[in-house]
What does this fold into?
Amino acid sequence: MNINHYTPHRTLYCFDAARLDESNRHKNIGVINWWSLSEEESQLENLKKFVDSQDICFFVSEEIFDRHNSVDMNKVFEMLNSCNVYYILFSCDASLDVQPSHNRSYYNPWFFKSPLYVPSNFIPNIDYVEKQYTFNLMLGSNKPYRTLAYKILKENNNIYAKYLGHPSFKIDSVPSLDNDDVYSDLISQDVAQHKLNTMNPVQRERSNYSISHVVPEKIYANTHFDIVTETFIKHQTMFITEKTAKPLATGRFFCWYNSYNVASYLEPYGFDFTHYEAAYDKICNDVDRLDAMLELVEEIANNPLFVKDIYAKSKSARIHNMEVFKEHTQNFNTRLTEWITSCLNT
It folds into this structure.
């Protein structure tokens, strides 16, 4: 088979591993990596020329769809849906009038494909043990909703809060519980001029991982729960990163600020949010949802009996979520290869 990438960079996925039957071995297979295209390459007429030159195409969108400001995604999907195009997607945008063809889409939450570093000797705190802090609030790049959360929570002595992506707050005198290599990298960055880069690599157990994908051992050892403020908040768009993946993978209770109704989005994949106290997740208005989440955080942080109650009531769901996370992430490549193969042999 001939695999033709409509982008300067090859995708990371399993096209070379796909097994074609005899009748399909001479197919021209086009791969469109949406996040690697230039503005010119992303224009509708140029996409159409490439798609028409191939026997079958795969449109791969690594993150959110609105990568190219000059492109109308409704028109892009309308054109692609009319052709022999399949989709590999890691976000959804319900606000679009035209959606990628459901029957030709392989859709997973973004964090399924993005490996975390969990120390090989990591032991999750499934049951209550004494710790210094109730919550950790670890904030990266400067965003208005993170700034609001930090201002509200930073004076609470039961919350370990750091905001290394904000030029005014990065030097606040909270003892660092980060690993030395992580802290040295992040504190040295000029966040007055540039967005904090948490994708820089650090080595763990002879492999390199992005800083953002490393489970923070010392922080977890000294805090009970996590506060997650996600990367991208937009009504009717769902994009879930390693920030949410970390507590799921390690059996931790967490409170989150993300787009509306995250629990209902993740539950079809097998996750269970019973006793996660997440009524705020169903508040449609972004400001009201954030306010309700922060109020809950303060209520929990200031009530040791509430903390113990959460450990007891959410225990089975947290154990279950660790197993679901493991199953999805370990089998991601195998399942994607099987799906690509089935598309090619259709």
Observations:
- The mean pLDDT is 93.
- Residues 2-107 form one domain.
- The longest strand covers residues 133-141.
